[in-house]
Amino acid sequence: MALLEVRNVGKSFGTLRALDGIDIAVQAGTFHGLIGPNGSGKSTLLKAIAGAHFPNSGSITFDGRDITTATPYERARAGLSLKFQITAVLPELSAYDNVLLALQSDQSLWSLLSSRTRRRLNGEVMTALERFRLADRADDLAGELSHGQQQWLEIAMALAPRPKLLLLDEPTGGMSPEERRVTGELLQPIRSHCALVIVEHDLDFIKDICDHLTVLDQGKVLDDGTVAEIERSTRVQEVYTSRV
Ligand code: ADP
Ligand code: MG
């Protein structure tokens, strides 16, 4: 059974059919890319998976559980994590405290935690920062990091609770080509314990890091397959040459 199964999911905004009978399956340990023209429904699909809104029809199963109407909190507890298109680090807090908040969202409990728990959390925060080359910036305010480093900090925050599936919506937006290349490199090691569903504008980047691609067009799945299969798809080439 796939880690994530989206079955016949529909979502309308008024009369606009943003998602129209979407089926996708994401296997554990795979990097799954969502591509398609602007407005094709990529962000809407990620939000339905994350629980930011509920679909009007269809079902979503994660790790053997029906999560179609589960709250975002319940999904996070089940092992789903996400980073949206818009940066959401808290600029007035240090990089360290941003990750700590992702792990221990109720800071009022901090004084009640045992020193052992605090040491464990400290280890997890530093591991998350190291993974994204931010250990030496731990004490710096998140707002003082470069745009690319803020994006990495957000991915580090999303990964800190050790999810089974990470959802990323255009994580390399605004990055330099070099930062983009490094992002791909830094994501690779998570494959051993976490699957990825990623939306990206940069086709070369997504083809480079993903195993599997789903192509959306006007709220429907236009094509789905391995990167090599999608590269050969004439339907996809037509849509990309005419509309992207
Ligand atoms: P993509 O991420 O592929 O660019 P989106 O999923 O953001 O596309 O949007 C799909 C369609 O749904 C677009 O036509 C968009 O304008 C519309 N849409 C998305 N979110 C909303 C919303 N909250 N209210 C109304 N329309 C929306
Ligand atoms: Mg989008």
UniProtKB/TrEMBL annotation:
<keyword id="KW-0813">Transport</keyword>
<dbReference type="InterPro" id="IPR003593">
    <property type="entry name" value="AAA+_ATPase"/>
</dbReference>
<keyword id="KW-0547">Nucleotide-binding</keyword>
<keyword id="KW-0067">ATP-binding</keyword>
<dbReference type="GO" id="GO:0005524">
    <property type="term" value="F:ATP binding"/>
</dbReference>
<dbReference type="InterPro" id="IPR027417">
    <property type="entry name" value="P-loop_NTPase"/>
</dbReference>
<dbReference type="InterPro" id="IPR051120">
    <property type="entry name" value="ABC_AA/LPS_Transport"/>
</dbReference>
<protein>
    <submittedName>
        <fullName>ABC transporter ATP-binding protein</fullName>
    </submittedName>
</protein>
<dbReference type="Pfam" id="PF00005">
    <property type="entry name" value="ABC_tran"/>
</dbReference>
<dbReference type="GO" id="GO:0016887">
    <property type="term" value="F:ATP hydrolysis activity"/>
</dbReference>
<dbReference type="InterPro" id="IPR003439">
    <property type="entry name" value="ABC_transporter-like_ATP-bd"/>
</dbReference>
<dbReference type="GO" id="GO:0005886">
    <property type="term" value="C:plasma membrane"/>
</dbReference>
<feature type="domain" description="ABC transporter">
    <location>
        <begin position="4"/>
        <end position="243"/>
    </location>
</feature>
